[in-house]
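Section 5: illustrative case.
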């Protein structure tokens, strides 16, 4: 794990965007394409807007989601909408974007979530694998991706062999589809962005050892995948 301290959230966004662009450029040079997975929420907006204007062969980049709320794509909480609005513009509009789903069933009970997961796994199976980089965030409760502590579905998200599964957090609205921990750790490189004193305190606790009560700790305390942590 490598740590990068930044003086502000804006500095973090620009420095991390430059690092992502360099990693994708290297992947394109080595393999002819690059796969980037991104997180949603409000925190990555500045990062997306910095990244989308950087010089890169975006037509050779595939963008995936780290996780998604099970809401329509025109919903205010949709990560798909966020990515389309803030990342897939300017030069980055040439990238290929692959959301987990196009439409949702009327009822999101467990059988419907399982069907969504199966369809998402089939969709991702057609993409180049493993991913080159996944950009993660972290909540005050220590969740990353949609690996929420104590959530229904967390165990399968931590140990499932498939790249995508469902989670239903008790502490947040909407059921989620998320990349599993094994899929994240199969990525060539992970980046974790953390801003604010409260999240920094959670990070300092999580780095002490792996604990399912703080799922981000399972990313930080492993030796399989390089992790860069960006702090402001």
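Designed sequence:
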């Amino acid at each position: 794990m490598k740590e990068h301290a930044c003086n502000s959230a804006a500095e973090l966004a620009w420095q991390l965007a430059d690092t992502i662009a360099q990693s994708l450029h290297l992947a394109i040079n080595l393999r002819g394409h690059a796969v980037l997975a991104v997180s949603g929420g409000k925190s990555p907006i500045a990062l997306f807007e910095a990244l989308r204007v950087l010089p890169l062969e975006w037509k050779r980049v595939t963008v995936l989601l780290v996780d998604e709320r099970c809401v329509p794509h025109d919903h205010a909480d949709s990560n798909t909408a966020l990515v389309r609005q803030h990342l897939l513009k300017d030069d980055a509009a040439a990238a290929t974007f692959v959301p987990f789903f196009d439409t949702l069933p009327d009822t999101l009970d467990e059988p419907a979530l399982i069907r969504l997961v199966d369809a998402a796994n089939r969709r991702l199976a057609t993409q180049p694998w493993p991913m080159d980089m996944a950009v993660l965030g972290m909540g005050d409760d220590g969740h990353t991706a949609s690996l929420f502590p104590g959530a229904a579905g967390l165990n399968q998200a931590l140990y499932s062999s498939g790249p995508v599964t469902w989670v239903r957090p008790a502490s947040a609205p909407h059921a989620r589809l998320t990349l599993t921990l094994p899929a994240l750790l199969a990525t060539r490189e992970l980046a974790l962005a953390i801003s604010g004193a409260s999240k920094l305190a959670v990070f300092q606790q999580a780095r002490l050892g792996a604990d399912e009560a703080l799922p981000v700790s399972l990313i930080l305390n492993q030796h399989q995948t390089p992790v860069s942590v960006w702090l402001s």
